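Subject: ATP phosphoribosyltransferase regulatory subunit structure
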Amino acid sequence: MKQMAGGAYARQALLPEGFRDQLAPKAEQEAALVRGLVDTFLSHGYDRVAPPLVEYEDSLLVGAGKTRAKQMFRLMDPDTQRMMAVRADMTMQMARLASTRLADAPRPLRLAYTGNVLRTKGSQLRPTRQFVQAGVELVGSPSLEAELEVIAVAVEALAAVGIGELSLDLTVAPLVAMMCDQHKLAGDVREGVMAALEAKDIGGLAVLPDASRAAFEKLLQAAGPAKQANEMLSGLELKGGAGKLVARLSRLTEMVADRLPDLSLTIDPCESHGFEYKSGIGFALFAKGGEGELGRGGRYMVTHPDGHEEEATGFSVYLDSLMKALPAAEKTDHVFLPFGTKSSDGNKLRVEGWRTVQGLDAGADPLVEAKRLGCSHILLDERVRPV
C-alpha cells in the first residue's frame, strides 16, 4: 500500500511538458533580474501596469493579437459563457490598455510591464511553455526617436542586469511584401518567393523573371553588417513606401551607432518570423555566446475601438533566455543563529545584509544544524564564522 501511495504521489509531482518548478537559487535570480529590468524601465519614465493573466478571447485577438491566436490556451467563463484566453504575449494587453483605459492619457504613452505568459506549444529554441516576459511600450509617437529610445532603454536594462557585448539585429518585415507588390507577384509565386527569402534559399527565386530575380537576390544578399546592408538596400532604388522604409532604416542605424557606439549592428531585411505584426522596423537583441535572442521589439499599430490606428514601438525580454546568457545562480550565504540567540543580534545581521536561519531545537548541536540546513556561516560568541 505504501508503495502504491508513493507511486501515486510521484505521478502527482509530474508536470506537463514545457512546464517546470523554479527552485532556489534560480527563482531568486529570476526575481532579481525582473527587479533590475523594471527599475531601469521606471527610471526612464515608463509607468508600470499589471493586466490580468486571462481575458476574453476577442480582446486578445484584436489587431496584431491575431498573430498569437494559435499560441493561446482557451477556456470557458462559467459566469458569462464567453470564451476566455490565457495571454501568450503581453504586448497585446498593452495595446488594449492604450486604446481603452488610457486612450485619453497624454501621448507619447510610456508603459512598463512584467508577468508570466503561457503558450500552447514550445519551440526548439524555447521548449518552455510558461515564462516571464518583461518590457516597455511607447505609444503615440511616429518619430524615429521612439525606436531609438526603446532600443537604448532595452540595452541599458540588459546591461544593468549583467549582460554585456550585445548585438542588435534590425529587420524590416513589411519590405518583402512591398517589393512583391511592386513586382506584381501574386498567388503561389508570391508565397514561394516569401518562403525562399525567409529560408535564405536563393535557388527558390529561380521562378522569377530576370529583372525581378535580380532585385530579390540583392535583397537576400544584403543581410549582414549594417553599413554594408544599407548600401546594398539603397542600391535597389526602391520607390514609395518601400523606399521610405529603407531610408528610415538607414537613418535609424546612424542614430543608434551614434548613441550606442559599442553596440554591434546587423540588418536582415528578409527576416519576418516573429515580426509578422510589425508595421515598420523591428529588432532583436543577442548576447555574445548566448543561445538565441534575449528579446525583440519594433514598431506596430495599436487599433482603437473606433477603428483608427496609432503607432507604437516596444520591446520585450524573455527571462528564460536571459538566465541562460548569465552565469548559473549560486546559493546565497546564510548565517545560522543557534537556539536562544537574541533577536537583536539577528536584526543587526539582517540590517548588514545577511540572511539568517533561526535554530528551533534547543537540544541540537549548533554546528551540526548549520551544516544540515546548508548554512555557510554560524553566529558563535557574537561573531559570524564560516561553517
